[in-house]
Write the structure tokens for this entry.
Amino acid sequence: MLRIQPGHALLYAASLGLLVFGNRDLWEKIREEKRTKEATRKQAEEARIASSEPFETQVLVRNPATGDLRNPHTYFRTMHVGRVNFKALRPARTSGTETNDDENASDTF
């Protein structure tokens, strides 16, 4: 039978503990795998929910005069714009004064 001295067993256990718990790269890989699996699971759950929702159908009618397709039903389009600075979208007010300096002179004769 194999006999191990208690000091050697303690050193062996300490080295094994340092090998497992002291390897920071191993723990980072484990955490990253866990994050990846969680993100994949969330995406699969969102896809399952989205695929179970019923979809809307509309009938298109061809205009005999022009030959193009029309949607006879009233519909609304949703636009997600987020935060918009409406003051920046307004055109700047400029005064229409004309000066006689050389920079703003016109080239017409």
